[in-house]
Amino acid sequence: MGFTPLGSARRAAEFTSREDGGATNPPRSRFIKFLAISAVLLVLTVACSQGDRSTWNPAGPVAGQQLQMFNVLVWIMVVTFVLVEGVLVYAAIRFRARPGQERPPQVHGNMPLEIAWTVIPTILIMALGIWSVIELWQLDKPPASADYVLEVTATGHQWWFEFEYADAGGGKTITTANELRVPVDTPVWVWLESDDVIHSFWIPRLAGKVDMIPTHRNRLWFQADSNEIETLPATFLGQCAEFCGLSHALMKFEVTVMEQDDYDAWVASYGQKPSLSAKGEQGQKVFNANCSSCHTTSGPDAAALVDGRVAGFLAGGNIAPAPNLTDLATRQKIAAGILDLNEDNLRDWLKNPNDIKPGNWMSARAPFYKDGENTLSDEDISAVIEYLISLK
Ligand code: CUA
What we know:
Layout lengths: L8 H11 L7 H21 L13 H34 L16 H30 L9 E8 L2 E6 L8 E4 L1 E5 L4 E7 L4 E5 L3 E6 L5 E5 L11 E7 L11 E7 L1 H10 L8 H13 L12 H12 L18 E2 L4 E2 L2 H9 L1 H4 L4 H5 L12 H11 L4
Parallel strand pairs: 1-5, 4-10
Antiparallel strand pairs: 1-2, 2-3, 5-8, 6-7, 6-9, 9-10, 11-12
Helix pairs in contact: 3-4, 6-11, 8-11
């Protein structure tokens, strides 16, 4: 329907009639068709949801309790809504004005009714509020009965996640990125920090969402239960849930849940010197000359180096906090959960990262990407890829 100027009802009628194909297809039936198609599309869209990112399919106690809370709150609200709206609709139809009917008697207030519809919602909302807060307190800490809790610090960056294990097992320190490895049936305590803007940490099937705030430490815990998981290792997708800049939607990560033995093997192998081919050694040279002021490939960085990178970044230098690549080849994805880890994707990423993740700091700060031109030769890039896929 177009805009109808005042005082031209006849033309409007003609217009409507032409546009709608005459009386056989009045605007109202088109509106109903539109609603029906929208409803079908909505149902189809819901069906697109992948189980690995659905809060309806919890895989641990925290996500399970969050779903339970959601269900209780939603069903109480649904029943309340149906009751209240039902009475409203019934009253509107039953007592509607009829032709020739006299004006109904005018009443002003009804004390018992007024008290009822003030007291009942007050009690309901207070009860739900108090119950929710008690539930949240209970959710806040891992069970006291757990004899071991794995601690990890997760830091949000534009646009990737850093994971630091002060003690991943046997006193070993690990820093990695975009893939959080945890043993099954073990509570994991996650400290949440940010190096730049506010991000939010969310693993829909395990726990979340909690904000990652600069200069403030938040926390959450989660656990992946073996009786909720068919086969191990299992991957759970995580993502940033707070708008944090241009590539916010491309800020993802994976949680890999492993048997304790496999996890221990990963911890033991982390940081071992890779065995390099001649091409890999060439790649290491190219990497050290071009990439190593931001990326590390030999274990966790010293605190002073991390601080130096942040200071250099804030001062506008050719430097930025960047993912630690020590165990890159053990990961399933690159570019913060965006692409599968393989040589083709690594090549695409190294040639023009801005195509894949617009606005990323590597494109903006690394000297060889200046002015949108990648000055690394194809041969250099191939050698770097050879080096990177040997980092286990
Ligand atoms: Cu980080 Cu959105």
